[in-house]
């Protein structure tokens, strides 16, 4: 029992140190020294030093050979990366259902795969007349608000390379298990203000997505369908998914931006569940 208490206390110290190294002060400075870490966790310098040495041996923290500062280690990020998609799916299911209930429209969780958008899960609208589920379907990122939400944190160089390869992909690339829909997929988007026609217009649209916190679509993929999407961030602030709500245009009318704000709020809530802090 006494040994268990000692192990538990040691684990608690380890966690305290990792949490300190995850704070903005440590991240922005590129790491912290032993003295500062000891002060923040309220421990003796010798105890903090032993804890850091143990964590460094396991790869959970790294020590800069020049500054001697400690920062979160590569092994910790690798472990987090392996569990992030599982956490995403687990956290998203209930929120997706709630989003469909609040908007009374069909909600989707989307990720970027192979340069385009894969819908991981859908929650159907409670309305009898609704858009279809898209689970397992891959669509062109430039044609969908989900794609633009997913690309919204890309740098200019990466975006240019991506556009050269995927900027003219067809609307639906892999149909997956998609059920027949009453809404026809358009060969080309309906002409609208701010339509995506080239890399320059895409860059301008991504700027608007970052400013507003959401992207919208007005009959760009399916005839008679509008949609709104918002990016989901993980604990590193990287965009890892997008929440999307699609609806018949005749029902949403001029409330597309209102829908976008609701979806953006839901995406922020899901981001927080994944450890993101604004």
Which secondary structure elements does this structure contain, and how are they paired or packed?
Elements: H1 2-21, H2 24-29, H3 34-41, H4 45-58, E1 61-63, E2 70-72, H5 74-103, E3 106-113, E4 116-123, E5 138-139, H6 145-150, H7 156-166, E6 172-174, H8 199-212, E7 215-218, E8 225-233, E9 239-248, H9 249-252, H10 256-273
Antiparallel strand pairs: 1-2, 3-4, 3-9, 4-5, 5-6, 7-8, 8-9
Helix pairs in contact: 1-4, 3-4, 5-10
Keywords:
278 residues, alpha+beta, 18% strand, transcription, seven-stranded antiparallel β-sheet, 10 helices, two-stranded antiparallel ribbon, elongated, 9 strands
How does the major sheet shape up?
A: 7 strands, antiparallel
Kindly state the percentage of residues in helix. Answer: 40-55%
Uncertain ranges:
1-6
**For the CA atoms, what is the radius of gyration?**
23 Å
Determine the mean pLDDT: 87
Number of helices: 10
Keywords: DNA-binding, Transcription, Transcription regulation
Organism: Lentzea pudingi
Pfam family, one: HTH_IclR
Protein name: IclR family transcriptional regulator
